[in-house]
Amino acid sequence: MAPSKIDITHLPSTDCPVIERHLEQHLDSSDKDHLLHRSFIDTPALVERAEGVNLFLADGRRIIDACAGAAVALIGHGNKEVHQAIVNQLQKVSYVHTQSYTTESAEDLANLILRGSPHGLEKAFFVGSGSEAVESALKLARQYYFEMNEPERLHIVSRRQGYHGNTMATMSISGNLARKVPFEGFSYTHTSQVSPAFAYRYMQEGETEVEYTARLLQELEEEFLRVGPHKVMAFIAEPVAGSGIGCVVPPTGYLAGIRALCDKYGILLIFDEIMCGVGRTGTFFAFEEEGDAVPDIMTIAKGLGGGYAPISGVLVHKRIVDVLRHGSKAFNHGHTYQAHPTSCAAALAVQKIVARDELIPRCATMGKILESRLRTELQDCWSVGDIRGRGLFWTVEFVKNKETKEPFDPDIHFGGRVQQAAFDKGVALYPCSGTVDGKKGDHLMLAPPFIITEGELRTVCKVLRDAIESQQRLLS
């Protein structure tokens, strides 16, 4: 007779490993598979611990985290200073509701990020995820125009293949076509898209960078006019494009041009720096390297908390704040875990380390080394069409034909196969698909922690080359 199943749900927790193992052995297999993963086919690797740039798996393997998860772990894993800051906060206060209370960790984090109101950004609003931050930014833009007595401004213009989140509104303005398929008809309708600023794919033969920028700006202005400028609420874009098309730096004059167009028609400019911000491209704000192009509202997330706790932020320009300050005197929006004390304490500790250890200048320096290594190692790989990026934010785009830039058939999953081959050799990279038009094309992103060494970058690039070559041979 099979042993009866032990119900441990009512047993007190024990600190005895022997007892814990005994109880675990009596759980039948159906009680060990309740977590809903992203895929029912691919089982994720179990990580037992993480330290520095390394992930240590349950099967004994060590993996170099060359993508920092999803460009998140900018100071690496297992930092004891951050751990202690979290413990200290938990010992003081773990949670309060922001309708009635605030905490030092939240106040200090906002003051650290916006010290001196850089670029006129005056207020910070902290929530839990990038999607929440973008959703909050959209609602703030809507409230701004409501209080300006322009309620007809409901339309949002974004760019094809941009990515802004996974909630219904943020997915509606995003260009990840695969994620949108099941939700057609179940989305925000007041939205339209223009071309991405993606020179490798869309700058025409014989066209100069200046001419390409002018063409993009003309398209955007024509879209504003088509919709009716008085109906457009905001234009939203990633200053350096993230996973959708892979670390694309805009052409010269583009960001300044969209700022001028938004000013011309009284439209708000929202910069989404969820992935590219907080130092990832070598400056704290990614837009800073593109001249005088300051957003009205911007979002940050991944590097803000460095993965130690879920947190994201909306940073708001003084001219937006002033309208609410003198109007309703409130932001008509909130979340239960808004400005969570522990998350804010973690992010505060991370950002103090970034500043103290000068990790953003280091990111810029190591980024140049990474670029050099990538171009050297991959120069003879016939499947590598483009290498692009800035700071420690780089993409390798794959093609079937370098001359024509023809992408691989999506059914081949070339980028995903390279990613798996690299993982099998001990390096984690970030695979993306739909690079060309949302359906065709694939690329891999590299976004390692800022603490990565030159030797580790050499290893990453060599493994990537070997992985690419192994997949090329399979297609020969």
From TrEMBL:
Keywords assigned: Pyridoxal phosphate
Cofactor section: pyridoxal 5'-phosphate
Keyword presence, Cell membrane: no
Record InterPro entries: Aminotrans_3, Aminotrans_3_PPA_site, PyrdxlP-dep_Trfase, PyrdxlP-dep_Trfase_major, PyrdxlP-dep_Trfase_small
GO molecular function, one term: pyridoxal phosphate binding
Record carries keyword Isomerase: no
GO cellular component, one term: cytosol
Gene3D superfamilies, per database record: Aspartate Aminotransferase, domain 1, Type I PLP-dependent aspartate aminotransferase-like (Major domain)
Highest taxon of source: Eukaryota
Pfam families named in the record: Aminotran_3
Family: Belongs to the class-III pyridoxal-phosphate-dependent aminotransferase family.
PANTHER family: AMINOTRANSFERASE, AMINOTRANSFERASE CLASS-III
UniProt-recorded name of the protein: Aminotransferase
Gene source species: Penicillium brasilianum
